[in-house]
Amino acid sequence: MKKVLLMGQANVGKSVLFNRLAGAYVTESNYSGTTVDFAKGRMRLDHEDVEIIDVPGTFSLEPKDRAEEVAASMLKEEKGALVVCVIDSSKVERGLYLTLELIEKGYPLVIALNMWDVAKSGNIKVDAEKLEQILGVPVVPTVATRGEGLKELVLTMKKAAPGEIEKIMERAGGKSGTHG
Amino acid sequence: MEKKLSQMKYEEKGRIKKIDRSLRAQIAGMGIREGKEIEMMTKQPIKGPLVVNVDRANTSIGLGLADKIIVEVEE
Fold first, then answer.
1. Can you tell me the distance from the alpha carbon of B69 to that of B74, in angstroms, rounded to the nearest whole number?
2. What pLDDT, in 10s, does the model give residues B39-52?
3. Structural contact between residues A56 and A48, judged by C-beta atoms closer than 8 angstroms
4. What predicted TM-score, i.e. pTM, was given to this entire model?
5. Which residues of A fall within a CB distance of 8 Å from B31?
6. pLDDT class for A178, splitting at 50, 70, 90?
7. Alpha-carbon distance A28 to nearest alpha carbon in chain B (angstroms)
8. Kind of pairing, strands B13-19 and B69-73?
9. Contacts of B30 in chain A (CB under 8 A)
10. Residues A52, A54: Cα–Cα separation, whole Å
11. A94 contacts on B by Cβ (under 8 Å)
12. In a 3-state reduction of DSSP, which class is residue A125?
């Protein structure tokens, strides 16, 4: 069965998103040998049943504690998985580190700019289209707690694409071997 | 004036000047990078961790890490 991994930092709404998407048949699992728990469920994606996993929150893919270790190894074990990278829209920059790591590893990716309402009420303007343009992967604003943008997110999962780190550097105006 | 992050006082603000190479990758994921503005939010007693605010996000850092971060603070 195809797998969808929900990844992101702690407290960005991964679990709320998970509960919205997974519906019934949720099982709580323990990553063997650790005390780190995660939830697994099923969802319907493009007329197909897929497994969706609520991965423990992590700052980066270089683990610093047990939960991050689990997150990193879960990702490693699921080579063919589609990854939904959940970012707190009010703290976008903070989430981009993990996002770029995921792109570097070559996973097909969709970005959920979650907590869009929080950013809005904090007067933080995020240009989702521009972000999509620079990263080369689909970006969808969501408010998981209210279910906003989830339909678009699921529809967009079909278009999940691996980004290209070199092109991102070019588009963002950063330095890379091939640019400047 | 330059000082270690661990020496910053409560509510003191500054800009991150230098992060020891050994932990750069470790804390970059938390949004703590050189050039970032930083504010001390909480200091825990008995060599406990401290909480800093970078880009409106609170992050707790162990004292050991904070010893290896140099901050330029406003006088």
1. 16
2. 999 988 888 899 99
3. no
4. 0.86
5. 91, 93-94, 97
6. very low
7. 27
8. antiparallel
9. 59, 94
10. 7
11. 30-31, 55, 57
12. coil
